[in-house]
Amino acid sequence: MIIYFFSGLAFTGLGLAVFLQLRRGSDFPLYKLLPWLAAFGISSGAGGWVEMFLVGETNPDVIQILEVFRVVLQITSGLLLLIFGWGIFAKITPLPPWSIFIPGIFIVPVAYVITYALSTFITPSPIEIPIDIWTRYLFYLPGSILAGVGFLRQWSVQRQQGYSDVASLMLGAGLAFLFEAFVMGLVVPAAPYGPASYYNYDRVAYNAFASKSMQIQPYGLIAWLDYQRVLEVTGLPIQFWRMLSAIAVTGFVVRGLDVFEAIQRRLVQSLQDERDRAQKTAISAQIAARHTAESWSDALVRISSRIAELEDVDRILLYIVESACPLLTADFIGLALVNEDTTQLMLKYFSSPDRSELVDTLIPIENSLIMGVLIFQSSYRSLAGEMPENLSGIVFNTQNQANSLAAVPLNLDARTVGVLWAARFEHQVFSDTDLIWMECLADQVMIAIKHGLMTAQLQTLSITEERSRIAREMHDGLAQVLGYMNLQVQTLEAFLKQGKLEKLQIKLDQMREAVQAAHADVRENILSLRTTLANETGLIPAIEEYLEEFSFQTKIETHFDNQVGDQLNLASIAEVQLVCILQEALANVRKHAKALNVFVIIKQQSEGDNPCVFLTIKDDGIGFVPARQTRSFGLQTMSERAQSVGGTLLVWSDPGKGSRVECCIPCLHREQLQKTISFLK
Amino acid sequence: MNVREWALPVYTILMQLATGILFILWLIRSSKMQRVSSTDIDKLFRRPILVVFFTILLAIIGSHFHLSNPLLSFLAIRNIKDSWLSREIVFTILMFFSCAALVDQIWKPDKKSQHSTFILGWSAILFGGISIYCMSHIYLLPTQTSWNHWTTILMFFSSSIVLGTTSAVTLLFMDTIFIQKEEPQLAEIRSDILKRSLLMLGYLAIAGFIMVVILNVTQINRMQGGDEHLNISLSLLFDLYQPLVIFRFLILFAGIGVFILTAFWLIKKGKTLTELVVPIYLSCLFVLVAEILGRFLFYATHVRLGI
Q1: Do A119 and B1 lie within an 8 Å CB cutoff?
Q2: In this complex, is the C-beta atom of A96 within 8 Å of any C-beta atom belonging to chain B?
Q3: Is any Cβ of chain B less than 8 angstroms from the Cβ of A652?
């Protein structure tokens, strides 16, 4: 009775444990089979307890009812075990293709066994006996074997995948089911028919091949297959061994339910690993992207810096293609411009990892893809599988064939004047990001070209202005003096003929003064020309040198107060204008102020948000009334010079109190450049 | 019935099964040969022929649990003139060897003589048929009144037809499903052959079933109007073995019914072979159980005259 109790308890525990696991859910394929296992456990447990009550019951009616329950529960649990066994054997891990033949191989033996089983139902023994026997042979035995082998397959599968924890649980459950197959499926009660009872009670087997009867060994395997033999051999009833198998199955399967935890842990771990990998990948991608962006930004800043420093356009463009080569990991960068009559696209600059060159000879570009970029004014990048013939004629000075292309147009005022392209020899296509960066480079190319054109225009303008100024100076100074000298020479000739030597002497003195004044003007102009056109040493040294020379020539004491050091942060053109303004102001001092001292102060201070360079020229001369001098003394010229570089110019003077010229020029270009550099970094 | 007695249903049923399967396969082969290449048709039958061969082998092994030392089987040839049993043994062995030759012919790719394959197949079927005929004649004994009737001969052949039809189709199902995974390019051809054959085989299965029923009804009528021994046999059939008799006919009807339904689902409803694998297995199992049970009843209900 106790044995039945524990047997029922074990199976019921199995059913409940599996049922609880069912409520937790899982993606593991075994989960779909748990309902069958739970139902098997509960029905087997109920069957065990029904047998327990049968042992102690004496009322025949109750016994009959309990017997019916037992039979129904036994068939039910056997069927459930068979379904579970088949599921775990065949459905968790796919069987090999040839397994389709397994049912075909077994169908004939199974048909015979079923027929044999049916024939035993017409024997005089109680019907529950054949039901018991055939339930065990046909349901429990194959069900347990299939479940056992199914768990062992999982043991093998999990072990191959390296999950030893899960594998060991599967092994235990598999062995437990095989043990159950023996004690629950093979050992049957005594009956007047076989197979177990046939061998155990007749004790005779007929060997057809030997044509004789043979005695079965008393303790061979077959001898174990009925209840009596098990009791005789082990000293314990089969019910005890079945209880043991129930406990073993329950123990191992309940322990084996940890597989779901292990699977869950594995899943969580794999998700964590995947997340970590994704994070690392994302960080790496971010770092790479930032690195790329920084590289590109640095390159663009360097290009901008060269443009701002008025470097030669050819050098700038060569530098651009040279920089693009490593940035795009390209094997060739080309820059072609349309010729003057806009009939052909000519290669002008190219760069490869080992050389960069400004092309002297005429190399026309005839590739249809590049010409397409020029004509349609739209960027292009080749995709994987681009036909090789489409990429011919885009690389030069190499024997390699390009296999990937990216090209952008060079647009100047809505007109395409050239194409910048990159090529790779490997089958590695350029990305859309590469194309965007190339468009930035193209913008830089166009800025450099525009800047070059503008600088050339400015230089032409400056030369023209300077010539005008020299002409004006010669007209106002030297030409006047020479004209005056011509008249005076005629007067001197007359005085000489008339013998008026005193008057002659006076005229000669006047002429000497005029010549000296003209000489001073000429020397000043020479000084100005030298200072403004040849100041390669920097603005402040040039001013210092000029003031020193001015003081020496004019005997006017100069006092220079430099409050900015060497860094003025002015554009080159602004520096030129500043020097010109200083020269003009000092020329006025020399000519008109009759000053003994002139003070030049240069300082930097902010005017609103913009820092400016302030230049003050102050003298202790006779002064003048500003309202009357608005169009003289070169004041107009000075004011225009200041305005041309965004600055202002003011003049203060009172008769007898000297004069003061104040010029303010904003440090526009370099300051903005610094801001751009900071922003990009 | 003990083990020795069960050897009889094993041998007789397996021989009838093997002959029936081979007959059905060769019927399909002969009727479809014009539409597909000989290579394809032979490949289609490679594994089923192997199954037929092993079935005959199992039948022979099973028979020796009933007979005697298998090594002395050749002695049967000495009594071929007088003994139906000796004739049965001889023709069984002939069928076995012709089937072995057929296996060799089909499985070796270099042997591609379609004519010899055709002849070998029909020879094996002929030997099998003669063997079944001899087998049935063994039971036509004056002392076994319930067996001693022409219905016995026809019963054996009808069993062969019913068993062969369902089992051959099951084998072709299995093989085609296997081919779908291993050689998908051939699967469509085989599936087509199977579908074309199913209609004919469905009619054949129904005819076999009707034949079984008619023969059994004839036999029962004979028993009712027969002598005392036949009445005893009849009473055994409808008394002790009644549940098995009813079950046998029910399950035979179910097996043929499922077979017809499977054919209908495949041809008309367009279901796949994989979807129909369980019904076709069930139909085969049901028919097998019904025929084995019929054979069991055949042996269990006979009454011997005299000692």
Answers
A1: yes
A2: no
A3: no
Domain count of the fold of chain B: 2
Does B11 touch chain A if contact means CB atoms closer than 8 Å? no
Tens of pLDDT, residues A17-30 = 888 887 777 777 77
The range of the structural domain enclosing residue B67 comes to 1-138
Using alpha carbons, list the distances in angstroms from residue A537 to A531, A541, A552, A564, A566: 10, 6, 21, 16, 11
Res A222: pLDDT: 56
For chain A, list residues with pLDDT below 50. 200-210, 219, 533-535, 671, 673, 675-677, 679-681
Mean of per-residue pLDDT scores for chain B: 83
Superfamily in which the A535-681 domain is placed by CATH: Histidine kinase-like ATPase, C-terminal domain (3.30.565.10)
Q: Which helix (H) or strand (E) holds A13?
A: helix A2-24
For B112-145, write each residue's pLDDT tens digit.
Answer: 577 788 888 899 999 999 999 998 888 888 777 7
Give tens-digit pLDDT for B253-273: 999 999 999 988 888 887 888
Query: What is the structure's pLDDT at B35?
Result: 63
Q: Which of B114, B138, B162 is the last residue of a domain?
A: B138
- What is the mean pLDDT of the segment spanning B94-103? 91
- Tell me, what's the pLDDT at A91? 76
B234 contact A CB<8A:
no
The token pair that represents B123 in the structure block: 């020879």
Q: What is the pLDDT of residue A209?
A: 47
Q: Give the nearest chain B residue to A106 (CA atoms).
A: B285
Looking at per-residue pLDDT, the higher value among A164 and B96 belongs to B96
Task: Give the C-alpha separation, A146 to A506, whole Å.
Answer: 143
What local confidence, expressed as pLDDT, does residue A202 receive? 45
Q: Which of residues 116-175 of A touch B (CB under 8 A)?
A: 116, 118-119, 121-122
The region of weakest confidence among A195-204, A662-671, B173-182, B218-227 is: A195-204
B18 compared with A514, residue with greater pLDDT: B18
Q: DSSP letters of A134-188?
A: HHIIIIIHHHHHHHHHHHHHHHHHHHHTT-HHHHHHHHHHHHHHHHHIIIIII-B
Q: How is residue A22 written in tokens? A: 């069912």
CB of A625 within 8 Å of a chain B CB? The answer is no
Examine the domain organization and report whether B105 and B168 are in the same domain: no
B292: contact with A, CB 8 A cutoff: yes
- Tell me the per-residue pLDDT of A380-395, one tens digit each, with 9 for 90 and over: 998 887 888 888 888 9
CB-based contact B137:B156 (threshold 8 Å): no
- What pLDDT, on a 0 to 100 scale, did the predictor assign at position A208? 45
Say if residue B151 is in the same domain as residue B277: yes
- State residue A201's pLDDT score: 46
Residue B292 and residue A103: Cβ atoms within 8 Å? no
DSSP output for A324-344: HHHHTT-SEEEEEEE-TTSS-
pLDDT at B42 exceeding the cut of 90: no
Do the Cβ atoms of A393 and A365 come closer than 8 Å?
A: yes
CB B283 within 8 A of CB B262: yes
Distance, CA of A352 to CA of A325 (rounded, Å): 6
Secondary structure of A42-110 in HEC code, one letter for each residue: HHHHHHHHHHHHHHHCCCHHHHHHHHHHHHHHHHHHHHHHHHHHHHHHHCCCCCCHHHHHHHHHHHHHH
Exposure b/e, A41-62, CB count within 10 A at least 16 = b: bbbbbbbbbbbbbbeeeeeeee
In the CATH scheme, what is the code of domain A290-449? Answer: 3.30.450.40
A111: chain B residues, CB-CB within 8 Å: 285, 288-289, 292
- Report how far apart, in Å, the C-alpha atoms of B282 and of each of A103, A104, A107, B286 are: 10, 11, 9, 6
Last residue of a domain, which of B123, B138, B153? B138
Which of A119, A120, A199, A207 to mutate to probe the B interface, most B CBs <10 Å?
A119
Q: Where are the domains of chain A?
A: 2-96+114-256, 290-449, 535-681
